[in-house]
Amino acid sequence: MFRRSRHPSSGRAEGEESPALPDARLGGQRPLPASEYLPGDPAVTLRDVHKRYGRGNSAVHALRGVGISLPRASFTAVMGPSGSGKSTFLQCAAGLDRPTSGSVLLGDTDLTKLRESRLSDLRLTRLGFVFQHFNLLPALTVYQNIRLPLKLAGRPVDRGAIEQMLARVGLPDRARHRPGELSGGQQQRVAIARALITDPDVIFADEPTGALDTTTAAEVLTLLREAVDNLGATVVMVTHEPSAAAWADRVLFLVDGEVSDELMLGDPEEISARMRVLTSATDRPQSAAPGMRGRG
Ligand SMILES: Nc1ncnc2c1ncn2[C@@H]1O[C@H](COP(=O)(O)OP(=O)(O)OP(=O)(O)O)[C@@H](O)[C@H]1O
Question: Source organism's superkingdom (predicted)?
Fold first, then answer.
């Protein structure tokens, strides 16, 4: 089982009370759900988002009126049975796909009103992505992979900042290596460094631990957790694994395209139990994610 390690006072002045982080299971109490800490300052807001694929009898309603607000500097996991709309949620929230109706706001910017060119600029400058299979460019070195989003966005490259980022993800001596020379966990750490280097408003992670063993997965989740706690990043992560979701502040459960439930600071057992209820209610088989079984 993964162990969550929190950093209660990080990102705040010394002695300042942290509103967000005391973990009930680590002996503290958390009086409010994350969604209520910064009610006026969400990083991402979905308002009555519908997504329909196809038309007529063959139409699939992948999202049915999702309305949710994700506070800045929070870590949200999205779970749900196979086909419940998790990927569609992530794609719409990240401006990679357009909802059929409803709106998606990144801060104050309504993504559904932007042209494609503005949207891709915004994805480069304000969003970070971490994928299950890392998606690093194999011909580039680790350093060049991390530098890439800055170059694509036409932003100045600060060599020191990239080296610092490499140290932050625990790979200070791997700058000249190619991804093929690294383990899966190391590649995912590079992908996280690449996602963080632009200081994005939100990092979207799609099954970031799906290809990793338990120990390596915990290292990667620690980095995402630290990005939230120490850098004030906002992370949204789709996962099938209760042990991974337990690193989040909040778990959203999707069923048939709707947010049917949520859990604050759930531990793997609670999250698994909630998933079992949802899965039996929808009477659908789980996706064959190995992490879903045997963990938590
Ligand atoms: N491009 C598409 N065209 C038609 N239907 C689609 C498309 N993409 C997704 N769907 C359908 O929308 C529904 C939600 O799919 P989605 O991939 O978002 O679910 P998911 O929860 O991520 O599933 P999984 O856990 O299996 O990856 C499913 O019924 C799926 O078949």
Answer: Bacteria
